[in-house]
């Protein structure tokens, strides 16, 4: 396929001439397909403009990596473990690992959050409802969530985000459980409401 250059609108003219032979719905399908392929990094001749991360295309490796305690490990340690487990060819490069690090932690937190929900927090009321029930639990005890946060050296915003599901992860789940216990609420109480 000949290379097209955008000089003086030549490429645009050639594309318009090619698409003119098709109906409007077919033009849209062709345009969408080519556009999506280019956005995903594929060019018509099969080469990629940008290498896609091996992590995002290897579910087995991803599942293994997000089971590791990423919060306490360095990128280098996780990369070495990946190379030892899956081999150098299959493991991502250092650069790819670096670019994907925050995404990996997000995947781990989401996975942990999903596991916690499936095990014990499945029937907890969503977002503000849980937050309001916890506040009510403290009020019934003659206290408040804000007072509990001060007494337990917890930022009130962190408590609110954990209860509303904005902050998800191991520390959030632990904090949420501590707050529920202190408010006198149990999983059964919340599931029965």
Strands, helices and their partners?
Elements: H1 10-19, H2 24-39, H3 59-65, H4 75-86, H5 94-119, H6 127-140, H7 145-151, H8 156-164, H9 170-182, H10 187-192
Helix pairs in contact: 8-9
Structural class: mainly alpha
- Determine the N-to-C terminus distance: 66 Å
The radius of gyration over CA amounts to 26 Å
Strand content: under 5%
Total domain units? 3
Sheet bearing the most strands, described?
A: none
Instruction: Tell me roughly what share of residues is in helical segments.
Output: 55-70%
As residue ranges, the low-confidence spans are 1-5, 116-125
How many runs of DSSP E, i.e. beta strands? 0
What shape does the CA trace take?
A: flat
Q: Give me the strand/helix succession.
A: HHHHHHHHHH
Number of helices: 10
Average predicted confidence as pLDDT:
75
How would you describe this structure to a colleague?
The protein has 193 residues and is mostly helical. The protein folds into three domains: 8-39, no CATH class; 55-119; 127-192. It contains ten helices and no strands. α8 (156-164) packs across α9 (170-182). The protein is flat. It starts with 9 loop residues before the first helix and ends with a helix. The model is unreliable at 1-5 and 116-125 (pLDDT under 50).
Summarize it:
By secondary structure, the protein is mostly helical. Helices cover 62% and strands 0% of the residues. The protein has 3 domains: 8-39, no CATH class; 55-119; 127-192.
Question: What features would you highlight for this structure?
Answer:
flat, mainly alpha, 193 residues, disordered N terminus
């Amino acid at each position: 396929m000949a290379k097209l250059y955008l000089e003086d609108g030549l490429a645009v003219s050639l594309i318009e001439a090619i698409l003119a032979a098709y109906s409007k719905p077919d033009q849209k399908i062709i345009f969408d397909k080519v556009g999506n392929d280019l956005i995903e990094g594929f060019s018509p001749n099969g080469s990629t403009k940008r290498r896609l991360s091996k992590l995002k295309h290897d579910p087995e490796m991803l599942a293994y990596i997000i089971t590791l305690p990423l919060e306490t490990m360095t990128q280098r340690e996780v990369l070495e473990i990946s190379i030892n487990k899956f081999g150098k060819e299959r493991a991502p490069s250092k650069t790819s690992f670096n670019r994907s690090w925050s995404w990996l932690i997000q995947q781990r937190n989401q996975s942990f959050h999903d596991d916690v929900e499936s095990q014990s927090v499945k029937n907890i009321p969503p977002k503000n409802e849980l937050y309001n029930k916890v506040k009510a639990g403290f009020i019934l005890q003659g206290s408040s969530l804000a007072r509990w946060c001060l007494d337990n050296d917890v930022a009130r915003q962190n408590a609110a985000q954990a209860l509303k599901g904005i902050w998800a992860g191991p520390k959030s789940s632990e904090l949420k459980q501590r707050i529920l216990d202190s408010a006198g609420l149990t999983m059964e109480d919340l599931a029965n409401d």
